[in-house]
Amino acid sequence: MVRTIVAALGAALSLSLVPASAVADPAVDPGTRAAAAPAATSADPVALVGARSVVEVSTGDARVSRGSRREARRDLMAARAASARFRDLKVALDEGYVPMGQSCVSSPEGGMGRHYIRRELVGRLEPVLPTILVYDVDPESGETRDLVALEWVKWDDDQDVSTDDDRPTMFGVPFDGPFERVEDMPVRYDLHAWVWKENPSGVFARWNPTVRC
Fold first, then answer.
1. Which residues of the chain carry a pLDDT beneath 50?
2. CA 37 to chain centroid
3. Helix axes 2-16, 69-83, angle to 10 degrees
4. Which among 16, 44, 108, 125 counts the fewest CB atoms within 10 Å?
5. Cα(204)–Cα(106) distance, integer angstroms
6. What contacts 207, CB < 8 A, 6 or more positions away?
7. Would you list the DSSP string of 133-189?
């Protein structure tokens, strides 16, 4: 049993070490799923963060149903590979992601960062098509720095926060919400995946205590 678990974790680590250069061309149609990419060396610290995220899911993230863990691990790796090109903010902007204001979002539970949204992807609940890219921000200069998380958004069907019969699921995890309307954002559900920065609160937690604004 122990050997089997160790072997499985080793496989997850090797599969998830995916370099940015191995992902699909940015010009690929957003409906096209990311192809499998070759493994990177373990010297890449960003790759190692992704590996830890995948291992956490494979070993029992509390929000992932037991029967969904293998599929969640596979889909997280696909999401990470497909989003690697967005580590370059210019690529994200060129592909239609726009800033949601200039603020860095934070709470007593931690931070998120600065959000860039592609509105035509709202409701497109596919791992390789994140609605929002989340970047951390330099607390001193206020400059956008590194890609840290992906976020998927779905508008609430009845726009009533007291009901949740239309709550979506991805990676075997129910979305958070519904959340009240905020400015030009209707009542909505969302789900974060911290595939580019380790989150002590969990891969799918909304807030990351290591992110500072």
1. 1-43
2. 18
3. 20
4. 108
5. 16
6. 106, 107, 109, 110, 111, 112, 201
7. EEEEE-TTT--EEEEEEEEEEEE-SS--TT--TT--EETTEEPEEEE--BTTB-SEE
Give the chain's length.
213
Pairwise CA distance, residues 163 & 26, whole Å: 38
Q: Which pTM was predicted?
A: 0.76
142-194 tens-digit pLDDT: 888 999 999 999 999 999 999 999 999 999 999 999 999 987 899 999 999 99
Q: Are 111 and 211 in contact (CB under 8 A)?
A: yes
Evaluate whether 169 touches 190 at the Cβ level (below 8 Å): no
Which amino acid, residue 98? V
Separation between Cα atoms, residue 126 and residue 96, nearest integer Å: 17
